[in-house]
Design brief:
By secondary structure, this protein is an alpha+beta fold. Helix content is 18%, strand content 36%. The chain has a single domain, classed as OB fold (Dihydrolipoamide Acetyltransferase, E2P) (Beta Barrel). It contains four helices and eleven strands. Strand 6 and strand 7 form a beta hairpin.
């Protein structure tokens, strides 16, 4: 009877999991900040802008708003564009702060990440300087980036 009661209690109890979203830029596993709006779209037509760095892909129209799209792999010189198609755009933040990042594959769910007492080392400088916290999901280490700082640093390079 006690065993049945315990299993019934377990079956009726609600477990809540924290689900975050991570994506990879090259071999850098990056985590979107908690409570930050994010959306993934199949790569739409991107309007390139002349005389901008090649890692700035241009702008897309997303629900009537213009959104800048960056190719972080190209910025970090990680991918050969002819070999590695980037078919997804990760849109981060609410308008007017929305930015897009080209990705090879859609983001993945990171369930119940544990914050580690570590600093980010060994990452490209521009990413390392914008990492807020380091997390682990028991399989991988994830670096939570402050996307606003990251893209502000990129904009300064125009």
């Amino acid at each position: 009877m006690d065993t049945q009661q315990a299993s019934t209690d377990q079956g009726s109890s609600s477990e809540f999991h924290q689900i975050r979203h991570g994506f990879e830029v090259g071999s850098c596993p990056l985590l979107i900040s908690e409570n930050t709006r994010a959306e993934v779209v199949k790569a739409p037509a991107i309007c390139a802008i002349p005389s901008t760095p090649d890692w700035f892909s241009g702008f897309i129209n997303h629900r009537g708003e213009t959104v800048p799209v960056y190719n972080l792999n190209k910025y970090l010189q990680i991918l050969d564009e002819t070999d590695d198609a980037q078919d997804w755009v990760l849109l981060i933040d609410d308008h007017p702060n929305t930015v897009g990042i080209l990705l090879k594959s859609p983001p993945q769910s990171v369930v119940d990440p544990e914050r580690l007492d570590e600093v980010a080392i060994g990452l490209p400088e521009i990413i390392e300087s914008t990492v807020r916290h380091v997390y682990s999901d028991k399989k991988n280490k994830w670096f939570e980036v402050d996307h606003r700082l990251l893209f502000l640093a990129l904009k300064k390079q125009f």
